Amino acid sequence: MSQGADSSSTGRARAVVLLSGGLDSATALAWTRRQGYVPYALSVAYGQRHRSELDAAARVARAQQAHEHRIMYVDLAGIGGSALTDWSLALPESPAEGIPISYVPARNTLLLALALGWAEVLGARDLVIGVNAIDFSGYPDCRPEFIASFEALAALATKAGVEGARFSVHAPLIAMSKAEIIRSGLSWGVDYAATVSCYQADPDGRACGKCDSCRLRRAGFEAVGVPDPTRYVPSA
């Protein structure tokens, strides 16, 4: 654990955790607690297709006893260029080569920047993000090179960094398969029924069963050999 400011109530270091409400971020939050940090959960409404994952994030934050959970707002729909923020673009329902249209330009850069800003105000020196470079859709901002580069940026772009503080960006799931993530999360007490991973979940949080995220999630549970708690729309 790096030396962040102590929480006034526990004497433990604080960490800001990006919490989307999906499977990976819920597992990353559980990892953060297991490491002994006091977790401050940050969710971002960036103009995504549905609010179900933000509702899931609130459930997960409560269940895992995050010290605080905040939702911040960024209008990435105003930029466009992604099927997750532009309803005129169809989400792919079968695997394809290259970076898919579900990639949101600069999303993780912006989300980590918000987390970094909040961390600096809190006196925290640790950021946690649930990106994964094994079972993922090929997004460039889910790679180890990106994480290392953002750490370098944090040292240069903040008052705390210039004054000598060292920020650490933890990506504990980055080299794990989806099955390994699920297996770890179950051992840490994660309730995956509370999470929503689907790119186009309905207002009740039911998954489509067809998008990249649904396929990877379903395959992960099958590989672990445990029941998939995901609620799917009837046609899925």
Structure write-up:
- It is a single chain.
- Helix 1 crosses helix 6 (178-187) and helix 6 (178-187) packs across helix 7 (212-224).
- The protein is 34% helix and 11% strand.
- The protein is α/β, with parallel strands linked by helices and 236 residues long.
- The chain has helices at 23-34, 52-63, 107-122, 144-157, 159-162, 178-187, 212-224, and strands at 14-18, 38-45, 68-73, 126-128, 168-170.
- The chain has a five-stranded parallel beta sheet with strand order 3-2-1-4-5, sandwiched between helices.
- It contains seven helices and five strands.
The computed structural class is alpha/beta
- Alpha carbon gyration radius: 17 Å
Poorly predicted sequence stretches spanning 5 or more consecutive residues: none
| Discrete helix count | 7
Largest sheet properties? 5 strands, parallel
DSSP strand tally:
5
Major sheet strand order: 3-2-1-4-5
Helical residue percent band: 25-40%
Q: Report the average pLDDT across residues.
A: 92
Outline, from the CA principal axes? globular
Helix/strand order, N-terminal first: EHEHEHEHHEHH
- Distance between termini? 42 Å
Portion of residues in beta strands equals 5-15%
Summarize the structure.
This protein is an alpha/beta fold. It has seven helices and five strands, in the order βαβαβαβααβαα. The longest helix has 16 residues, at 107-122.
